[in-house]
Specification:
alpha+beta, 4-stranded antiparallel sheet, about 15% strand, flat
Length: about 950
C-alpha cells in the first residue's frame, strides 16, 4: 500500500511545499553553480562523479543532477549546510572524506560551496532563491497519544524480590518508560525491575524466565509492557505483561535465537520481532500465529518500531539496512539509504510523519515519510549513536559511545547533555512528562536527570536488592532519619531561643540609644560655651597677626633681594668656571696642535729623504733597462752575421738578456709605483701641516677672547658680592622685628588653643554619643529588618523538624510493610499449594457429581429404551406411555444440563489449577 495524495493531505503528511520566490537579504553577491561551483567540481570531483561514471549514483556534471543527488538521496539541501551531505564529506566532517586519497579541498573553495548552499544553491545569475523547503521536522497532523482517560497504570502488589541474587550487573540491555506514569522498566537477568521515577523507589519485579530482555516497550496507553529477549543461540520470544499485576498476557514467537528487536502495534493486535536470524516476523496476539515473514534484511535485525498511528513499521539491521513497511501487509514502503554503518535504534515522531534513526556511524538521521528523503542529519555521538527516542513534544534523547546522553530539539539542535559516564551509554528515555531522562550505560550504572539544567537526581539499581538487603538498608536509613529528626528538633529549639534573644536585643538597643541621647545633649551645651571663648581669643590673635604680617613682609622682601643677588653671583661664578675650563681646554688644544705640527714636520722630512732615495733607485733601474736594450740589439745584429751552427747559441744569449730586461723592467715599474706613493705622501703631509698652522692660529685667537670675557665676569662678581652684604644686614633688622611680633601672637594663640582643645574634647564626646545613637539606630533597624527572617527561620526549622519526624515515621511504616511483604512472599508458595489442594478437592467433588449424573443419565436412557419398547408393544397404552415418556425426557434434559454445567465448572477449575501450577513452577524455577 502506498499513500495517495488525498490521504497524505488528510493526515498532514505532505511536508515539502514550494513557496513564492524569496530574495536574499541585503545586496549579497550571488554564488551560483555555473559561475563558481562547477569549476571546483570539475577540478576535484568530475573524475568519479560524471555522467558516464557516477559513483554512488551521484553525477555532479550539471546542476539538475547535482540537486537530484545519488543512491543515498539528496546531497545538497538548499539553505541548510548542516543537512547537506556533500559539504560534510568535502569538509571532512563525515567519512569517507572527499576527494578520496587526497588532501581536503582548499578552505577558500570549501567556503564558496558553503556560501552557495547557504544562499539557496542557485544555478546561474538569473536564478532566484526559493523559500526554504519545510523540513517536516515540526509535528503536524493527528498525533495519536493513546493517553488513558482514567489513572495511568502503575504496578499493584508486585513482589520486589529479585529473581537472581547478583553482586553486579552487566550492560543495560533494555529500558522503557511508561508514556503516562512515573514508571520505568529496566531489564536484568531473568527479570524486569520497575521503578518510580518520581521517588526513585523500586515498585516491583516481573520475572522473565525466558532469559535476558533485549527490548522493552510500553503500549501506547501504558497498560501493557512488552518484553523481547531470550537466550543467545537457543531461544527467543516476546511476552506482553499486564503493567498493574505483572502477569503475562500472551507470548508469541518460538525463535531459535534471542530476540534483539521487537514492538507491539498500537492496537496490541500484532507483535513484530527480529534478531540474529535476519528475519522480520509479525505475529498475531490473538492466537500467536505467524502472519508475515520478511526476508529483506541481510544481517541481524537490531531495531523495530511501529509508527504511533499504526500505519507503518520500521526496521533496521547490523549492515546499515533501514526499511519502512506497510504495517498491515508487510509490503516494502521505503528503503532508506544513507547510513554507513549499523542501525542501532529507530524512533517515530509522535505524529508519525518523521522517523529518526541512530547508527554506529555516529549520526542521527531524520526521514520524512512521503518520499523517504533524509531531511536532517547531525553528528550525535563520536564513535557511534546507540539509541534515539522521541518524547511527546517532539524532542529527542540519544545515547552513544562518547559516554554521554544528549537532549535534542526536533530540528536536531543540541539542547543539553549529561555528565560523562564510566563507559558508553546504551539506553536513554524521557519520563512521562518529559521533564526527566533516565540513562543506562555499559557498566550497569543508571542515572536519573532533571532535563532543565541537567541536574542529576539520583541513581537506580540494575541489580535489585533482596528483601533482607532492602530491610537492612531501610533500617540504616531510619537511623539516619532519626538522627536527622533529632538534629532538626535541636535546630528548631535553637531557632526559638534565637527568636527570644532577638526580641531582647531590640529592647536593650532602644534603652542604650536613650542613654546616649542624654549624654550627647550635655556635651553639646559645653561646646557652645567654649565656642564663645575661642571667638574672643581669635579676635586678639587676628590683631597681632596683622602686625606680624607687616614685619614678615619686610623680612621676606630682603630675603628675596638676597636670593636674587646670590643667584646672580652663582651665575657669575658658573660663568667664570666655564671660562676657566674653556681657556684650559683651548690651551690644551693649542699645545696639542703645536705638538702635532712638529711631529708632522718631522714626518715630512723623513718622507722627502725616502722619496729622494726611491728616485735615485728608479733612475738606476731605468739605466739598467736601457743598457740591456742596447745589448739585446747588438746581439740580434750579431746573430744575423753569425754562422748557422752558432745561431742557436746566440739566440740563447738574446733570450737570457730579454729575461734579464723583463726583470729589470719589473723593478723599474715597482720603483715608479713607490716613487708615486711617496710623492703623494709628501703632498698629503704638506696639507696636514697647513691645517695644523690654521688650527694653532684659531685656538690662540679663542684663548685670548675667553680671557677677555673672564675679566669682565670678575668685575660683575665683585659688584654682586657687595649687594649681598648690604641686603643681609637689612634682612637681619627685619627678622628681629618679626620675632618680637610673633612672641605676642603666641600668647593669643595659646589661650585659643586651650579653649579649642577643650571644645574638641567635648565635640568628640558629643560625636561619640551621636555615633552610638546612629549605631543603635542602625542596629535597631537591622534587628527590625531581620526580625521576619529570624521568625521565618524559627518557623522553617520547626517545619523541617516536623517533616524530618514525619519522614522517619514514614520510613518506619515502610519498614513494617516491607517486613510483612517479605513474610507474605515467604508464605506465598505454601498459600499456592493450599489453593491448589482446595482446587483439587473441588475438582474431585465435581468429578464425583458428574459421575453420579452420568450414571443417572445412563439409567434414564435404559428406562427410555424400555419405555420405547413398551410403546411398540403397548400401542393401546400410548397416551399413558407418552406422558411417562415426557416425564423421562424432562429428567433426561435436567441430567444433561447438570452434566454440562459440571463440565464447565470442572474446566474452569482445571484452568485455575493450571494457573496455580504455573505460578508454583515459576516460583520453583526462578526463586531457587
Amino acid at each position: 500500500m502506498r499513500y495517495t495524495l488525498s490521504f497524505l493531505v488528510l493526515f498532514g503528511l505532505t511536508t515539502v511545499a514550494v513557496a513564492d520566490d524569496a530574495k536574499p537579504a541585503g545586496d549579497v553577491e550571488k554564488i551560483t553553480y555555473d559561475d563558481h561551483v562547477r569549476a571546483i567540481f570539475r577540478e576535484h570531483c568530475f573524475t568519479c562523479h560524471n555522467q558516464n561514471d557516477a559513483k554512488g549514483g551521484l553525477n555532479l556534471e550539471n546542476f539538475g543532477a547535482t540537486l537530484e543527488g545519488g543512491a543515498g538521496g539528496e546531497v545538497v539541501i538548499a539553505q541548510d549546510v548542516e543537512s547537506s551531505r556533500l559539504f560534510a564529506l568535502i569538509s571532512g566532517a563525515e567519512t569517507p572524506k572527499m576527494p578520496p586519497g587526497q588532501d581536503l579541498i582548499a578552505q577558500e573553495k570549501q567556503d564558496i560551496i558553503k556560501k552557495w548552499i547557504e544562499l539557496g544553491a542557485l544555478e546561474n545569475s538569473g536564478s532566484k532563491v526559493k523559500a526554504k523547503k519545510k523540513s517536516g521536522l515540526a509535528m503536524s497532523g493527528p498525533v495519536t497519544t493513546g493517553k488513558p482517560e482514567g489513572p495511568a497504570a502503575m504496578p499493584e502488589g508486585l513482589w520486589k524480590a529479585p529473581v537472581m541474587e547478583l553482586q553486579s550487573t552487566g550492560a543495560i540491555t533494555a529500558m522503557a518508560h511508561s508514556p503516562w506514569a512515573p514508571l520505568v522498566a529496566i531489564a536484568g537477568q531473568k527479570q524486569i525491575a520497575l521503578y518510580n521515577t518520581d521517588t526513585l523507589k523500586l515498585l516491583g519485579v516481573i520475572p522473565y524466565p525466558q532469559g535476558v530482555p533485549y527490548i522493552l516497550r510500553f503500549s501506547r496507553n501504558g497498560e501493557v509492557l512488552m518484553a523481547g529477549g531470550g537466550r543467545g543461540g537457543y531461544s527467543g520470544s516476546v511476552t506482553l505483561f499486564n503493567v498493574r499485576t505483572g502477569k503475562p498476557l500472551v507470548t508469541v514467537g518460538d525463535e531459535y535465537d534471542v530476540v534483539l528487536a521487537a514492538d507491539v502495534s498500537p492496537d496490541l493486535s500484532r507483535v513484530a520481532l527480529g534478531g540474529p536470524q535476519r528475519l522480520l516476523r509479525i505475529y498475531s496476539t490473538d492466537d500467536g500465529s505467524l502472519l508475515h515473514e520478511v526476508k529483506k534484511h541481510t544481517d541481524w535485525v537490531t531495531t523495530i518500531a511501529y509508527s504511533p498511528d499504526g500505519v507503518l513499521l520500521a526496521s533496521g539491521d547490523r549492515s546499515n539496512g533501514l526499511f519502512v513497511w506497510e504495517a498491515d501487509t508487510a509490503r516494502e514502503y521505503l528503503n532508506l539509504q544513507g547510513h554507513k554503518e549499523a542501525i542501532n535504534s529507530v524512533s517515530w515522531q509522535p505524529d508519525s510523519n518523521v522517523l529518526a534513526s541512530a547508527s554506529t556511524d555516529g549520526t542521527v538521521k531524520l526521514w520524512e515519510m512521503v518520499e523517504g528523503k533524509n531531511i536532517k542529519s547531525f553528528n550525535a555521538h563520536g564513535g557511534g549513536a546507540e539509541w534515539v527516542s522521541y518524547t511527546h513534544d517532539g524532542r529527542m534523547v540519544t545515547a552513544g559511545r562518547d559516554k554521554v546522553a544528549k537532549v535534542w530539539a526536533g530540528d536536531g539542535k543540541e539542547l543539553a547533555k549529561t555528565a560523562g559516564f564510566g563507559d558508553l551509554t546504551l539506553r536513554a528515555c524521557f519520563n512521562y512528562d518529559s521533564t526527566k531522562i533516565v540513562v543506562g550505560d555499559w557498566t550497569g550504572e543508571i542515572r536519573v536527570y532533571q532535563v532543565e539544567g541537567m541536574q542529576e537526581l539520583g541513581k537506580l539499581k540494575a541489580v535489585t536488592p533482596t528483601y533482607d538487603q532492602m530491610i537492612a538498608s531501610l533500617q540504616s536509613e531510619i537511623g539516619t532519619l532519626d538522627k536527622a529528626a533529632a538534629d532538626q528538633g535541636g535546630a528548631a529549639a535553637a531557632a526559638k531561643q534565637a527568636w527570644d534573644n532577638h526580641l531582647a536585643a531590640i529592647e536593650n538597643t532602644k534603652k542604650a540609644s536613650a542613654d546616649a541621647k542624654t549624654a550627647m545633649d550635655a556635651a553639646n551645651a559645653k561646646v557652645e560655651e567654649l565656642k564663645k571663648a575661642i571667638a574672643q581669643s581669635e579676635a586678639t590673635q587676628k590683631q597681632k597677626e596683622q602686625e606680624a604680617a607687616a614685619k614678615d613682609a619686610d623680612a621676606k622682601n630682603w630675603a628675596g633681594e638676597i636670593a636674587k643677588a646670590e643667584q646672580s653671583l652663582n651665575q657669575i661664578n658658573a660663568k667664570l668656571a666655564d671660562y676657566g675650563k674653556k681657556v684650559q681646554d683651548k690651551t690644551n688644544a693649542l699645545n696639542s696642535a703645536k705638538g702635532a705640527q712638529a711631529e708632522h714636520q718631522k714626518q715630512l722630512e723623513d718622507l722627502k729623504k725616502q722619496l729622494a732615495a726611491q728616485q735615485q733607485a728608479h733612475e738606476a733601474a731605468q739605466k739598467k733597462v736601457a743598457d740591456l736594450d742596447a745589448k739585446i740589439a747588438e746581439a740580434v745584429k750579431q746573430k744575423e752575421t753569425t754562422p748557422d751552427d752558432q745561431k742557436e747559441s746566440k739566440q740563447k744569449e738574446i733570450d737570457s738578456l730579454t729575461q734579464e730586461k723583463m726583470a729589470a723592467q719589473g723593478e723599474v715599474d715597482k720603483l715608479a709605483a713607490e716613487v708615486k706613493k711617496s710623492t703623494d705622501a709628501v703632498g698629503g703631509k704638506d696639507a696636514e701641516l697647513k691645517k695644523d698652522a690654521e688650527a694653532i692660529a684659531a685656538a690662540d685667537a679663542e684663548v685670548k677672547k675667553l680671557q677677555a670675557e673672564a675679566g669682565k665676569a670678575n668685575e660683575e662678581k665683585a659688584a654682586a658680592e657687595k649687594s649681598i652684604a648690604s641686603a643681609k644686614q637689612n634682612k637681619q633688622t627685619a627678622d628681629t622685628q618679626l620675632a618680637s611680633a610673633k612672641g605676642e601672637i603666641e600668647a593669643a594663640k595659646k589661650a585659643k588653643d586651650d579653649a579649642s582643645k577643650e571644645m574638641g574634647s567635648q565635640q568628640n564626646l558629643a560625636k561619640r554619643y551621636g555615633d552610638e545613637i546612629n549605631k543603635h539606630a542602625e542596629q535597631l533597624k537591622k534587628l527590625e529588618e531581620g526580625k521576619p527572617n529570624v521568625e521565618k527561620d524559627m518557623n522553617d526549622k520547626a517545619a523541617a523538624a516536623k517533616a524530618a519526624a514525619e519522614r522517619a515515621a514514614a520510613a518506619k511504616q515502610d519498614l513494617e510493610a516491607l517486613k510483612k511483604e517479605k513474610a507474605d512472599f515467604a508464605a506465598f508458595p505454601a498459600k499456592l499449594q493450599a489453593e491448589q489442594a482446595a482446587m483439587l478437592t473441588g475438582i474431585q467433588t465435581k468429578e464425583q457429581a458428574m459421575a453420579e449424573a452420568a450414571a443417572q443419565m445412563a439409567e434414564l436412557e435404559k428406562q427410555m429404551e424400555a419405555k420405547l419398547a413398551e410403546i411398540a408393544k403397548l400401542q393401546a397404552q400410548l397416551d399413558k406411555t407418552m406422558e411417562e415418556k415426557s416425564a423421562v425426557y424432562a429428567k433426561l434434559r435436567d441430567s444433561k444440563q447438570k452434566v454440562e454445567a459440571g463440565s464447565e465448572e470442572m474446566a474452569t477449575a482445571q484452568a485455575k489449577l493450571q494457573d496455580l501450577k504455573r505460578q508454583q513452577e515459576m516460583l520453583q524455577n526462578v526463586y531457587q
